[in-house]
Design goal:
- Keywords: Glycosyltransferase, Transferase.
- Belongs to the glycosyltransferase group 1 family. Glycosyltransferase 4 subfamily.
- InterPro entries: Glyco_trans_1, Glyco_trans_4-like_N.
- By secondary structure, this protein is an alpha/beta fold.
- It has two domains: 224 residues, Rossmann fold; 182 residues, Rossmann fold.
- It is 43% helix and 15% strand.
- The strands form two sheets. Strands 3-2-1-4-5-6 form a six-stranded parallel β-sheet, with helices on both faces. Strands 9-8-7-10-11-12 form a six-stranded parallel β-sheet, with helices on both faces.
- Helix 3 runs parallel beside helix 5, helix 4 runs antiparallel to helix 5 and helix 4 packs antiparallel against helix 6.
- It is elongated.
Length: 411
């Protein structure tokens, strides 16, 4: 089965969920081609990129460094040079659709069409993120992209994008795509609100390789030290400012607690200044960006995972953070918020404790519960691991995904 996997920038260390699907489908005998943008800057690369030779499977269908108009003209010329002039009526129709939906799409679509016209048809086009799925649907109308279309919906594409572009932004995609794959029940409900046909929707979660995550019963250190950990980009929706505030409220009662934050992003300086203003001193450390093996080591070296996610002012929301699956798989008790699909994984009193978004007092109270009762950690950790193994195992999910795609290709 020939499968095109469409994503944003590739390789991207922050999107291990896409990488896990790519390697999983290759392991299951699929002929996978990756359609993506080149990374904006050099960064660390996951070892599986080299191990599976993924760069030889990658088609970069855009190019940096040249004006969009020049790229578009090159795209038109290259598209016509393929001698597939029979596709021209579809191409004109597709560009017209692009202009109706978003005037800025037409230039990049010409470039992408030029690259796609050199490729053989696919059985299935599996697209990550609804905004890219929208482009893929237009490229299918143009005749440049051929194959049944399945689209994953994650976070930004379900929150900010419809706000910015209007609630009808996916109207044509909902008509054309054969399969819509929200990663949570929360996003399934949102898709229906936006007008998606329920019969085209199937929740398909992202997952992790549970065998890579050792289960470890957590106990405070012999000297009483307890280490909290947050992992993620330093952006508003991660809610790290609220995590700092909650930690500050309990620090006097629990002076042996430490809070470590792994990640980087535009709010780095602001968050460091906030920690200083709260008088947290060296009890808070910012560790910078870490690659996957370093993240696993950090999870095993810490006691409690704190993910105080919030809806950003522009409406941006999480999907279902993979780091939560990873933390639970290692047996960590989790403190989080009632945000997006998080309660579908972090179940209050079962695999972790949940507070409302931006509820500093609620976060602090939940943190106190865990700091006062370390015996609770093992119970939460065992139940969290069981949930991840049952519902978020990438092996099980990739088996199911291949079955879905085969059924779609055959339909």
């Amino acid at each position: 089965m020939r499968v095109a996997i469409v994503t944003g920038q590739f390789p991207a260390l922050s999107q291990t969920f896409v990488l896990n699907q790519i390697t999983g489908l290759i392991d299951r005998g699929c002929d996978v081609t990756i359609l993506a943008d080149p990374p904006a800057r050099a960064e660390k690369v996951h070892p599986d990129v080299e191990r599976y030779g993924l760069m030889t499977r990658t088609v970069y269908w855009t190019r940096h460094g040249r004006p969009a108009k020049e790229q578009a003209l090159d795209g038109v010329r290259a598209f016509l040079r393929t001698k597939k002039r029979r596709l021209l009526p579809g191409m004109i129709k597709g560009v017209g659709a692009a202009r109706r939906h978003d005037e800025t799409l037409s230039a990049s679509l010409m470039v992408k069409a030029a690259h796609l016209s050199r490729l053989e048809p696919f059985d299935v086009v599996l697209c990550h993120f609804g905004n890219l799925g929208r482009e893929c649907q237009i490229l299918r109308e143009m005749g440049a992209l051929r194959g049944k279309l399945a689209v994953f919906f994650h976070g930004y594409d379900m929150s900010v994008f419809p706000i910015e572009r209007g609630p009808g932004v996916y109207r044509e995609l909902f008509k054309g795509a054969e399969l819509l794959l929200p990663i949570s029940e929360h996003w399934q409900e949102r898709l229906i609100e936006l007008g998606a046909p329920p019969e085209k929707i199937a929740v398909h979660r992202m997952g992790i390789d549970t065998t890579r995550f050792e289960f470890k019963v957590r106990r405070p250190e012999a000297d009483g030290e307890v280490r909290l950990l947050t992992i993620g980009r330093l952006v508003e929706k991660k809610g790290i400012a609220y995590g700092l505030e909650a930690f500050a409220r309990v620090r006097e009662r629990f002076p042996d607690a430490r809070y470590h934050i792994a990640g980087d992003g535009p709010l780095s300086d602001e968050l460091k200044a906030r920690a200083q203003a709260l008088g947290l001193g060296d009890s808070v450390q910012f560790l910078g960006w870490k690659h996957q093996d370093e993240i696993i080591a950090l999870l095993l070296d810490h006691h409690i995972l704190l993910t105080p996610s919030v809806t950003a002012k522009n409406g941006d929301k999480e999907g279902l953070p993979v780091v939560l699956m990873e933390g639970l798989a290692t047996g960590m008790p989790v403190l989080s918020t009632r945000h997006s699909g998080i309660p579908e994984l972090v179940r209050h009193g079962e695999s972790g404790l949940i507070a409302e978004e931006r509820d500093v007092e609620g976060l602090a109270q939940n943190l106190e519960v865990l700091l006062e009762d370390p015996d609770l950690w093992e119970t939460l950790g065992q139940q969290g691991r069981a949930i991840v193994e049952a519902e978020f195992s990438i092996e099980k999910l990739n088996d199911h995904l291949k079955e879905r795609l085969e059924a779609l290709a055959a339909s």
